[in-house]
Amino acid sequence: MPRFITEIKRTNSCGQLTANDLGKEVVLYGWVHNRRDHGGAVFIDLRDRDGVTQVVFEEDVRPEVHALAGQLRLEWVVGIRGKVVSRGGNVNARLKTGEIEVHATELEVFNRSEPTPFQIEDKLDTAEEKRLQYRYLDLRRAPLQKTLITRARVNHLTRNYFTDSGFLELETPFMVKYTPGGARNFLVPSRLNPGKFYALAESPQLFKQLYMIAGFDRYFQIVRCFRDEDLRLDRQPEFTQIDVEMSFVEQNDVFDVIEGLVVRLWKEVLGVDVPRPFLRMPFEESMSKYGNDKPDLRFEMPHTDLTGLVKEHGGGNVPMLKDAVEGGGIVKAMRLAADQALSRTEIDKLEEYVKGMGAKGLARAKIAEGGEWTQSPLAKTIAPELRQAINAACGVQPGDLLLFQFGKPSTVQTVMANLRVHLAKRLGLIPEYGSGGQWRFLWVVNPPLFEFDEESGHWAAAHHAFTRPHDEDVQYLETDPGRVNCYRYDLVLNGFEIGGGSIRLHDPAVQARVFKAMGISDEDARNKFGFLLDALKMGAPPHGGIALGMDRLVMLLTGAESLRDVVAWPKTQKGTDLMTSAPGDVDAKQLKELWVKSTYEPKG
RNA sequence: GGGGUGUUAGUUAAGUCGGUUAUAACGCCGGCCUGUCACGCCGGAGGCCAGGGGUUCGAGUCCCCUACACCCCGCCA
Description:
single chain, about 30% helix, about 25% strand
C-alpha cells in the first residue's frame, strides 16, 4: 500500500474543494477539528490554515479504515485520501466547502494529541494567560491564523510598494551605542569589552539619516525595534516599524508616499477606498479640542478651553478656578447633550475613573432653562457673567451637562482626552469594526520643537533633537523657544498614533543653536552625537522620513482589540513570555564572562 | 513607582447571610448509534477554591500579605 507523504502527496488544502471538484480523488492533510461518530459512519471536520472540510468514513466501504477513524480524537494530525462527493440536501451553508464532503478510503494518523488545555475554537473565552502559555495552540485558531496571514500580506504589499517606488531596502544594526534621552534601552553586555554595553536599537533613526548622507536617497526597512518601557494594550517591548527616509523632500512629499502606501493597504486588504489627501490638523488645535495629539475623529465631543475666559473674569468668584489659572493651570469643559444624560451613579463612576488618572474630582453642571446651573457645587458661587460666557463658549442647551477639569495642564489634558473617548464608548458613538465609515486618517502637524521640562528647568526636544524648525521661527530659538514650531508630523487613525516622523535638521549651524537652546553643551553634544554632527557637516542633503507602527496598522486593519493579538509571540504586561518563561536565570559562569553582577535581592 | 479589576475541576462560569457531601456546561474516559455539522442517548472519572497568614465553634465566602494576569496614570525623544 502506498504511503502518505512519501508517495501520497497532498492535492488540496482543507478550504479549497467545491462542487467544481466533484468526483475527484483527493489527498488532504490536517488536524481533526471536530468529530461526530454515528457508529456506522464517522464524520471528521479536517482543518488546516485554509479552512475545514468534512470527511466521511463509512463502515461498509473500508471496515478497517472506518475502525481507525472511530479512534480519532480532537487535534490528531492525519492524512486522508478519498473522493469528493456532493452533500446532496445536506449542504452546510456556513462552510466554504459546505457543498461537498470527501468519502475517505485511506487514513493515516501522523500524530495523536493529548487533550488540549483549551478547545481550538473561533470564539474562545479562555483567559489570555492560558492562551499565551500554549500560544502554538492559540495560533491554530482561525481568527489568529487570519490575522497573521493579513500581517504577512501587509509585509508583502509594503515591500512591493516601496521597491516599486524606487526605495532601497537596507538594514541597520540592532546592537548600537547607547545614546541618552528618549526611550529606555535594553542593554547587552559586551564580553570582549569588559564593563561596556551595547544598546538594542529603539529605532534606526540615526542610521537611516546616515544612509541619506551616504547618498542612498530613498530607504525603507521593515524593522524590529526595542524599548524597555512599561507595556500597554498598544505597546510591546519589541515591535515592528515600517521605517522610511527620503532625501531632497519636504513634508508633503513624505505625506504623498505614505498616503499612497496606506491607501493601497486598505484597498488590497479590506477592499476599502480611503480618500486622499488625509485631513491635516495643527498640533495646537488637536490639543485644544481633544486633549492629545492622537484624536479619534470617529465622533465629535470636542473640548472647550475656558482658560482665557476664566482669566478674563478673574475666576468668577470661584476660588478653585482662580487658583488654577493664576497658578499656570488650564480650565477645560466638555458638553454632554441632554439625550446623552448619565445617571448620578454613572457620573460618580466617572469621577472614580478620572481620579485614577490624577484628577482631584469631576466638576459638573446641569444646564437649566435660562442657563442656570444646577446639581453643581459651582452653581451658587460662580459669577453669572462667567457662567453665561461659559455657556456660550460651550454652546449649551437646557438639559445639557458640562463636565470640567482644571489645574495642571498635563493632567487636565490627559483626563479630558481619556474622558472623551471613555464617554464616546459608553454612549455607543464609535461604530463597530466592519460597519463602514470608520477610517478617520489624520496628519497632526506643526507641533512646537521644544517643551519645557519642569524637572530640569529647561527646554527639551519634544521629539528629537534633529527635527527641523520652521524657517520663520528660527529667529526665536534664543529669545522665545516655546514659540518655535517644527516640521514634525504624526499619522493618526481612530485614536491611535500609527506613525510619526519629521523633516530633519541638516544645517549644522541651526543644529548648534538648537542644542544651545536645550542647554546641551558642545562637549555633551559631541559625546552623544559626534558621529552624526560630523556627518551633517560633510554634504548632508535635505532629508526627512517617517516610521509607521506595523503592529498597530495590522491591529486596526484586522479589528484586533490588542496588540498581543497581532503579534505571534507577545509578552505580558510585565514583559515576560508565559510560554518559554523568558526572561530567565543564567549561569554564574555566563555572568562572569560578561563582567556582570546582579544586585537583585528577592523580597522577604 | 501609583490606582483599579480579577484568580473556584482540563476550560469557562455559578456558589445566597460564614454552616455540614462545592454545582453546571464544554472537554476527557467507557458504551450505543449510517447523515451529522454546537450530532444525539446512557454511564463514569475529575477540586490544595492561586499561595501564605489571621478572625471564627466553623472560611471558597470576612481581614491582611504575597504571586500572577489584565486595564489605566507616570513612562514611551
